[in-house]
Write a structure and sequence with these properties.
The complex is a heterodimer of chains A (389) and B (330). Helices cover 68% and strands 0% of the residues of chain A. Chain A is mainly α and 389 residues long. In chain A, helix 4 packs across helix 7, helix 5 packs across helix 6 and helix 5 runs antiparallel to helix 13. The longest helix of chain A is centred in the middle third of the chain and has 31 residues. Chain A is globular, with a radius of gyration of 21 Å. Chain B is α/β, with parallel strands linked by helices and 330 residues long. Helix content of chain B is 26%, strand content 15%. Chain B is globular. The chains are: A mainly alpha (389), B alpha/beta (330). Bound molecules: iron/sulfur cluster (3 copies). One iron/sulfur cluster binds next to helix 3 of chain B.
């Protein structure tokens, strides 16, 4: 059954143009983060009284963790739906998820205004189990630990720890089950985060169905990331592309996408929010951008022949990553408006990230790239190939 | 080979079990009958901002400047250092007070002490709490992690974070609860020269508000100042006050007590001559978004029943698919 090639390290140099650039970006980020801790959030961000959450939350955590759903989405397909043919995709996807989530966790700490109290989040006497934020934080923390355990065999292999590997393999099914449950819980709750904000979220993005919408898009984004990453890794490492796997995977993705779009549009009609999409507003423009990105994959890879074309698969992956990101950006930033009594106050809040804020987000991404390169070159992650450059 | 149909069947069984548990919707909370708050009557407010200054002093907050010369405290909105503000509505020629057309009006901005506060539901570490007796929504900086979810959630834009400090706190009105032990009530109500801001038990304040709405505009009536009624709080003895009542003219009210029903009610109530939406008080449903949010959470996670059931299902599936001898690939 399992005649797949065993994963193997790629080898090759660790220092090249990509890793060097990543290193520089990481150093820049480190300086900005230091300034933030000494002088406060206001010193490096454009956060203000009208926008308490900026890109560090909306992009680094909410979007970043959805990008990191590849591991969970593929593992679910392989182990829960027993589609073992996708097995070679598991390890690389898991690696990207591991980095995505670990960094989302780090990004949260940088963003917390009173980070030294963060242990209260795990103190049974202080936690508020009704808080959506509590649920998200606990599930993400637990999932990061679970993923490191899931990924541990890679390190055990590298260091020849066969006994540890054998023992872990006995309970691996439990870890895999947890590793599927936890992201389902917090990816849906990331959507629920918006519910309590009530009228402050534009009706195009405020619905009790948010948990369902965020969960389905997180899974489709997971598959999209796998398409994106497989094509990119093949190109960058000059390896044969895994089209025989990616083609059916893309079909699974489209199936979920249809389900999502039916629920999404049905909900808008049901709540009567649909006309708001035609009002001349920034929100409406962003809504249509989001919708266009969600529909684009059907034009790119709608037919079986198109799904065999790596370039189209890549583009469809990118479109869907963009779509899910826009859904999240729209809910958390574009469609968010604090109540300020606009006519009385004469104040209006605006938010656009500062350069330093952007550089931190870029730096987090650089950590991901650097980590991915180092680990794939030195640890057995990608399937072994007969001959590669 | 197991089939997907088999999986779907068991998935359905799980949801059926979870569904039959009959998870009750979380109702919108009501304010405690002993709850205290403020009544702000915009038609009585003269815009002197004595309450803004008193609030700063009572909370030890620094002045904030929005003018070229930093001479006076001139915040444009509430902030991490400004918990109370009188804002102005202006229209056209601004001739008539409390008129929507060609008029002007004042509106107080401070925490509404909601019956079912979004900030409390949002806070992951119980740094925002609602007192079961007084109903005061209090903040505990020693517990707060600074996630600013309360800022994001509050329907009135009240909690604000101090972005200029590496150890910034959330700033918001706590109804001057720190003054109670010395027999003082809300500083803003205490200093108000016209009784536009009154402190008292919310039920007393609501009765007073309704009395005013029932009066004929332009007639004369008696207005209290400072504290209304006993406003009894266990263990608190208010300092004696002289009789501060005075005769005044009844305003031309919008027939609505803001805060009676909004989000299940608020302990701070408001009267106005200009429609509330025009003076920055949002139109809110009678149920709270905290109730909606917690209903979703409790339905999905109540007693961890659903997660455990799903975990059981996933474990069963994974046990078949993850073979120990090749568990290395997981
Ligand atoms: S007004 Fe805002 S800060 Fe005050 S109790 Fe209500 S939700 Fe909380
Ligand atoms: S900022 Fe503090 S008070 Fe507000 S929700 Fe977060 S932990 Fe709670
Ligand atoms: S009750 Fe105290 S803290 Fe609240 S607005 Fe009045 S003076 Fe300020």
């Amino acid at each position: 059954m399992n005649a797949h090639a065993k994963p193997a390290p790629l080898g090759g140099p660790l220092l090249n143009a990509v890793t060097f650039t990543a290193g520089v970006l990481i150093a820049v980020m480190a300086v900005i983060v230091l300034v933030r801790f000494f002088y406060g959030l206001g010193a490096v961000t454009h956060l203000n009284d009208g926008y308490p959450w900026g890109i560090w939350i909306a992009v680094d955590v909410v979007i970043g963790s959805a990008f990191a759903c590849g591991g969970f989405s593929v593992a679910m397909l392989v182990y829960i739906f027993n589609r073992s043919e996708y097995h070679p995709l598991v390890r690389p996807a898991l690696l990207a998820s591991l980095f995505g989530y670990t960094l989302a966790g780090v990004a949260v700490i940088v963003d917390l205004g009173r980070w030294w109290n963060v242990w209260n989040m795990f103190n049974p006497w202080t936690v508020n189990p009704s808080s959506v934020m509590f649920e998200v934080a606990v599930c993400i923390s637990a999932y990061i630990i679970v993923m490191w355990i899931e990924f541990a065999p890679t390190f055990f292999e590298k260091f020849g720890m066969t006994e540890a590997k054998r023992r872990l393999s006995k309970i691996m099914f439990l870890i895999v089950a947890l590793g599927t449950l936890l992201p389902m819980m917090h990816q849906s709750s990331l959507g629920t985060l918006l519910v309590v904000a009530g009228e402050q979220i534009h009706p195009l993005w405020q619905t009790p169905l948010l948990p369902a919408l965020y969960l389905t898009t997180a899974i489709t984004m997971g598959y999209a990331v796998v398409l994106f990453e497989s094509c990119l890794a093949s190109a960058a490492y000059r390896r044969a592309i895994e089209t025989p796997l990616l083609t059916p995977l893309a079909k699974v993705m489209l199936g979920m996408l249809i389900a999502y779009l039916v629920v999404r549009v049905g909900d808008l009609l049901w709540r009567g929010a649909w006309p708001r999409a035609f009002a001349p507003s920034l929100e409406a423009i962003f809504f249509w951008l989001e919708m266009a990105a969600f529909v684009a994959p059907f034009f790119l890879i709608g037919s079986e022949t198109q799904r065999r074309n790596p370039a189209r698969l890549f583009l469809a992956g990118v479109a869907l990553m963009l779509a899910g990101s826009l859904l999240r950006l729209n809910g958390f930033l574009i469609g968010y408006q604090t109540v300020i009594g606009a006519e009385t106050a004469g104040v209006n809040y605006h938010y656009f990230p500062s350069l330093t804020e952007l550089l931190v987000t870029v730096g987090m991404f650089a950590v991901e790239v650097l980590g991915y390169v180092i680990i794939t070159r030195r640890f057995p992650v990608l399937p072994r190939e007969a001959a590669h450059a | 080979m197991t089939t997907r149909r088999e999986f779907l069947k068991s998935a359905l069984a799980v949801s059926a079990t979870a569904g039959s548990l009959d998870v009750a919707a979380r109702e919108t909370h009501r304010a405690p009958p002993t709850g205290v708050g403020l009544l702000y009557d915009a038609t009585l407010c003269v815009g002197c901002k004595a309450c803004v200054a008193a609030c700063k002093a009572a909370n030890g907050n620094p002045p904030e400047f929005s003018t070229a010369d930093p001479l006076w405290d001139t915040p444009l909105d509430t902030s991490g250092y400004t918990f109370n503000l009188i804002k102005v509505y202006r229209h056209g020629t601004m001739e008539t007070k409390d008129a929507e057309q060609n008029g002007y009006a004042f509106m107080k901005t401070s925490c509404m002490h909601c019956a079912d506060p979004s900030c409390v539901s949002a806070c992951p570490v119980s740094a925002m709490t609602k007192d079961p007796v007084t109903g005061i929504v209090a903040y505990n900086p020693d517990q707060c992690i600074g996630c600013r979810y309360c800022v994001f959630a509050c329907p009135f834009g009240i909690p604000k974070y101090q972005y200029d400090s590496p150890t910034g706190r959330i700033g918001k009105c706590e109804l001057c609860r720190h003054r109670h032990k010395d027999g003082y009530y809300s500083a803003c109500a205490e200093v108000c020269p016209t009784g536009a801001t009154l402190f008292g038990k919310t039920t007393d304040l609501l009765a007073e508000a309704k009395r005013r709405l029932a009066l004929k505009p332009g007639t004369v009536t008696t207005f209290p100042r400072g504290r209304l009624g006993e406003a009894a709080i266990p263990g608190v003895q208010w300092r004696p006050e002289p009789d501060q009542r005075y005769e005044g003219v009844v305003g031309n009210y919008v027939q609505h007590v803001y805060g009676e029903h909004e989000y299940g009610g608020t302990q701070v109530l408001k009267l106005s001559g200009v429609p509330f939406e025009k003076v920055g008080m949002p139109k809110l449903p009678p149920y709270s978004s905290a109730a909606t949010s917690e209903t979703i959470q409790h339905t999905l996670y109540g007693g961890l029943i659903m997660p455990i059931a799903v975990l059981g299902l996933l474990t069963w599936r994974a046990k078949r698919a993850v073979k120990p001898e090749e568990g290395d690939d997981a």
